[in-house]
Amino acid sequence: MNLDELKKVLQSLESGEISWNEAYDKIKYQPYEDLGFAKIDYERNIRQGAAEVVYGEGKTKEQILEIVKHMLDKGEKSVLITRLSKESCDYIKGYLPVFYDEISRICIAGEKPSVNGKTGKIVVVTGGTSDIPVAQEAVLTARFYGNNVVSLYDVGVAGVHRLLDNAQVLSDARVVIAVAGMEGALASVVGGLVDCPVIAVPTSVGYGASFGGLSALLSMLNSCASGVSVVNIDNGFGAGYLAGMINKM
Predict the structure, then answer these.
(1) How far is residue 217 from each of residues 82, 100, 101, 186, 232, measured CA to CA in Å?
(2) What one-character DSSP code corresponds to residue 115?
(3) With contact defined as beta carbons under 8 Å apart, do 227 and 219 qualify?
(4) Do the bridges between strand 78-82 and strand 98-101 make them parallel or antiparallel, or are there none, so unpaired?
(5) Among residues 146, 36, 30, 70, which one has the least CA distance to residue 79?
(6) How confident is the prediction along the chain (249 residues), in pLDDT tens digits per residue?
């Protein structure tokens, strides 16, 4: 049940077309739909302000298609799918209109949402080019929720003048997402330059002693800069979603 459907139920109740018990039943039996392999949470948009997101890894292309089709049939205009393989995307494309980004493996089924010009700006920066796939996941997630997003790629501390050359872009941000692997120092540097929240994303980029992103994660957690928070390793989606929430407050 989407917001329009809920509104119709309440209007019918107010006008006397249905009883309290009938209204209760219509709402009570709509919390999720059990497909056997998945339970789709249709009420999440009402509770949290954003619909359920489909995580693509570990699901078959047939399962993903069925989940997405049910969500669209229930009134969602677009569905965000993360970590979707090209093969699964090509399969879904045979049934639904989709946008797909191969770098981030982000897919949008249905309409592509537009940017809300009334919100502030989210700036996504990366330490290096190798961090771009995770950064792109953050960028496209934030844009999916209507945010104005600017990307600054390959501006890490090994050549910090590249970052400083974009100081004005950083100062205009409402939220900054700092994406970096190796030692993860970018988040602390950015945190010391801006007056807005910084969301740090450690990536699994780096040589053996980086331990698949654990070194960057610990560095970011121990940042000496105030206002820096950290999401999980390679979790561009989580950073983009959180940045969007902060931006719209």
Answers:
(1) 22, 29, 26, 12, 8
(2) P
(3) no
(4) unpaired
(5) 70
(6) 566 777 888 888 889 988 888 887 776 656 677 778 888 787 777 677 788 899 999 999 999 999 999 889 888 899 999 999 999 999 999 999 999 999 999 999 998 888 876 779 999 999 999 999 999 999 999 999 999 999 999 999 999 999 999 999 999 999 999 999 999 999 999 999 999 999 999 999 999 999 999 999 999 999 999 999 999 999 999 999 999 999 988
Give the separation between CA 188 and CA 234, rounded to whole angstroms. 18
- Residue 20, classified by CB atoms within 10 Å of its CB into exposed (0-12), middle (13-18) or buried (19+), is exposed
Place of tokens 């997101």: 53
| pTM recorded for the entire structure | 0.85
Q: What span, in angstroms and rounded, lies between the C-alpha atoms of 202 and 183?
A: 9
Q: Which positions ≥6 away from 215 have C-beta within 8 Å?
A: 182, 183, 184, 206, 209
